UniProtKB/TrEMBL annotation:
This is Ig-like domain-containing protein. Residues 2-76, 87-175 form the Ig-like domain. It comes from Rhynchophorus ferrugineus (Red palm weevil). GO terms for molecular function: axon guidance receptor activity. GO terms for cellular component: axon; neuronal cell body; plasma membrane. Pfam families: I-set, Ig_3. SUPFAM superfamilies: Fibronectin type III (SSF49265), Immunoglobulin (SSF48726). Keywords: Immunoglobulin domain, Repeat. One of its GO terms (biological process) is homophilic cell adhesion via plasma membrane adhesion molecules. It comes from the Eukaryota.
Amino acid sequence: MPSSGQIVTRKGSPVSFECKANGNPTPTVQWSKKDGLLPSGLQVETGYLLSINEVQRQDGGIYQCTASNGIGQPVTGEVKLHVLYPPEVSVLRSWVNSGEGLEAKLDCVVHADPPAEVTWYQDSFQLQPTDRRIMARNGQTYSLTLRNVQLSDFGNYSCLVVNSIGKDKRYIELSGKPGPAKIISPQHSNPHEYELKWVVQSVFPIVEVRILYRRVMVNTSYHHPRQWHDLLVKPSQNYNSATSERTQKYRLINLQADSAYECLIQTKNQHGYGELSDLHQWFTSPKGRFVIQNSGYTRKHSAFSLIFVVILSLIIC
């Protein structure tokens, strides 16, 4: 039940399925969901009644009740649950980097039933398709492609998605500035120096990097940061054209041994400074202990061991 074999309901509503079965001896009834788990997270539930308190979008599908009593073959019945829900929108990237003369693609992933209408905006102005502005759909992904990007194309975009039940909106920024740097250095360093390494997305070369770092006094009762060191540097960069990512590094020196440090990085290209990175923390080793990076793992040596390795290498040479 229902005898029609189908239930149509809205997201958030309660739903119950009932499966009646006769036999001698009395059959056992089990519920399952075709091609998935039940809303409870179980593979199978036993009982004539299957109830869902608040239906979610993912609960839609075909539910099966199977009756068996050990005599003959089990018997299976099916009921289809069709869930109507307002649009649910996500973006593949909330920040997209591009440059003049290049191409930029903005994507919104849309789930909606009944089907929804998608409208693109730049700031508060609705956009229409042109030869340079292409709007397309591939499955659940709606795309806005900008060809031959111009300075006027940079800014905030949004995709507004509406159906008869509700609406949703998500924002995407198109910028020529660098993205926030992602620091990929380890969390431990040698006593007095640290190789800071980061990756930043930028179509244009990075022309300047601002590094803010400071020592942090930490114990069980307080956390007291020192003054920031503010550096402007121009390290070299390796560019990956497939991802538009640039990898850079810079060695910090004159650090205090056995201490905690934290830093921020901000990069600049011809369009200006991007946003600050997330705060990154690391710890310097105690005096006399060195951290050697080798094939992805870290080994600690005493000063004596390190000197011995150097001397041995000289003897072999």
